[in-house]
Amino acid sequence: MAAIGAQKLDGRAEGGHGPGILLFFLGMSLFTFNDALGKWLVADYTVGQVLLIRSIGAFILLLPWVIRGFRGLLTPDQPWMNLLRVSLMAAEVAIFYLAVRGLPLADVMTFYMASPLIVTALSVPLLGEKVGPRRWAAVLIGFIGVLIVLRPTGAALSSSALIALAGATLFSLILIVTRRVRHTGGLGLITYQIVGTGLAGAATVPFAWVPPTPFDWALLLGLGVVAMSAHLCLNKALSLAPAAVVAPYQYSTIVIAAALGWAVWGDVPTTNIVIGNLVIIASGLFIYYRERQLKGE
Question: How far is residue 180's CA from residue 84's CA, in Å, rounded to a whole number?
């Protein structure tokens, strides 16, 4: 996706799962709308300038928190790991936008739905975690779902599909690295993410710049505002309801993406996309609930 899951800006918790679920769903819907708007804009503008301008919009909205916690931002915990995370995020967002140039939004989101499977597979060599036979079976079944979507034949395999799969893999690496730097704090993670992505976009501007119209300036800045608003919704949702309660609702994004793709671009999901989605989502949900069982939640 073009944005990573929200991090808490504060640690306050309140009761009531219903409002938390609604806010989580709203946040995921905003992220999907943000991705659709990004797909629309990268058709006319370079990926680099989209990254730069959307980061400016997001930073404007985040500025009150940055001012309040400025001193803490100057001394990040695990600076090299944070730098790696920011680099991965800049690359992932750029790859996502490249993928949606050539594929329907729902197709790209399908590959990203495989992220829990990729994280499970990579957590063994990268985090030293133990994965039992049931979860390995779920991972293998989930990747069968990816192959159904990918259709790896000479006639059907496209560069855009491979780019989307690479983006999903980078997204999974980001989740793993985020586990390693979780003590940095939510404000630091979001701020470094926005600043790093903006700088990556700025580095490309001298080589490729398409002057936006005034209306498109508003849309490009709006990308960042919408993404930051989604982060805030998810942050509040996680203060109202446990992550274990709201996490399964992330799969609603594929339905929203398919609806937006049909309404805006006339994209109708193919049979292999639908079947592959069902296999991937079923495998991901099994891994999710299996992890809850192992943790005794």
Answer: 11
* Whole-number percent of the chain with pLDDT over 70: 90
Euclidean distance between CA atoms 100 and 43, whole angstroms: 9
Is residue 287 within 8 Å of 133, Cβ to Cβ? Answer: no
Note the pLDDT of residue 14.
43
Are 116 and 268 a contacting pair, CB within 8 Å?
no
Mean pLDDT of 93-112: 90
pLDDT of residue 161: 87
CA-based Rg of the chain, rounded to a whole angstrom? 19
Backbone angles phi, psi at 200, to 5 degrees: -60, -40
Q: In this structure, are residues 173 and 122 in contact, taking their beta carbons and an 8 Å threshold? A: yes
Let me know: does 76 contact 184? Beta carbons within 8 Å: yes
| CA gap 144, 132 in Å, rounded | 19
CA distance 108 to 167: 9
Number of C-beta neighbours around residue 211 at 10 A: 8
pLDDT at 189 over 60: yes
Identify the weakest region by mean pLDDT among 61-65, 160-164, 235-239, 258-262: 235-239
For the segment 122-130, the average pLDDT, to the nearest whole number, is 82
Residue type, 37: L
Do the Cβ atoms of 227 and 34 come closer than 8 Å?
yes
